[in-house]
Write a structure and sequence with these properties.
12 strands; mainly beta; eight-stranded antiparallel beta sheet; 2 helices; four-stranded antiparallel beta sheet; elongated
């Protein structure tokens, strides 16, 4: 049996492939001229700057997720306050999605995007390391929250086109994901 393919079907298939290929190529063409930087301040981390090109006219969005730790003090039954021995993971903070402002040539920088960690549910005295194992007489009080890491993702048309990881005390320009 001989197969007959209409020229119209071939043209439609090639046109669809061309459109899909162009869309993917446009998203893959983002070039980073300068890396965004992160600054850590207590429970917050702010990522900003950078220099991106090749964004075209498709809106791009940046979002930062911060991770960190919560540090607790312990008060014993007689009222003496001592620092807890074990930091506890803080609740991750996620920034709103922020649209990158692109110029007519598809270039953009990242306006400051801030994410802040929050306190987890109050841990037990044992989790924090108050008074040794098995001691339930201690009271746990939050002393500080510290952002220790950040993850930046830039998406365009719901596809990730860039990501970067940052660490407190590490390079301000972070590391590739």
């Amino acid at each position: 049996m001989k197969s007959i393919t209409s020229p119209l079907v071939v043209a439609a298939t090639m046109g669809t492939a061309l459109v899909l290929g162009t869309s993917t190529a446009a998203l893959a063409a983002v070039t980073v001229k300068a890396q965004p930087t992160a600054s850590f301040d207590g429970a917050s981390v702010t990522v900003s700057g950078g220099n991106f090109s090749g964004l075209g006219n498709i809106p791009a969005f940046g979002q930062v997720t911060a991770t960190g730790q919560a540090n607790y003090d312990c008060t014993n039954p007689s009222g003496k306050v001592v620092p807890g021995q074990n930091p506890v993971a803080a609740q991750a903070g996620v920034s709103p999605r922020e649209e990158l402002k692109t110029d007519k040539n598809g270039r953009a920088t990242l306006d400051p995007i801030t994410a802040t960690v929050t306190a987890p549910p109050t841990p037990s005295a044992q989790q924090v390391g108050c008074g040794g194992t098995g001691n339930t007489q201690w009271t746990v009080v939050l002393r500080s929250l510290v952002a220790t890491g950040a993850h930046l993702v830039i998406t365009q048309d719901s596809q990730q086109v860039y990501c970067r990881d940052y660490t407190l005390g590490g390079s301000a320009t972070g590391a590739a994901c």
